[in-house]
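Supplementary Methods, section 5.1.

A reviewer requested that the exact input to the structure prediction be made available. We therefore reproduce it here, unchanged from the version used in the analyses.
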Amino acid sequence: QVQLVESGGGSVQAGGSLRLACAASGYTHSQNCMGWFRQAPGKEREGVASIESDSGATHYANSVKGRFTISRDNAKNTVYLQMYSLKPEDTAMYYCAYDHRVCLLDHSLWDYWGQGTQVTVSS
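The structure derived from this sequence is encoded token-by-token as follows.
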């Protein structure tokens, strides 16, 4: 089992920045992927960004490319999401996810999820 705990959400005005963090604990595989997904009220959960443990390869949704940066500290089993130039449409609950098989931004493929942290961007 893998436990994920997110932190760093909050409220910010459009154009502002936030940094999310997610720490994994429990049994973690030597090779794995960690990612961020988000879900706005009434909408389906969507992939935001993911990062592989060994290669460091990253994947981004088109809507956040150039504004968000995902990174990780493997020694701490922690993944970060630095968000710049936030827009009202980025408002959502942000979820951290972990999987040892896939790194695609398809939420149906991931096994482990955090409880989520709210990000609210006002105009």
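Residues 88 and 121 are 5 Å apart (CA to CA). These observations are discussed further in the main text.
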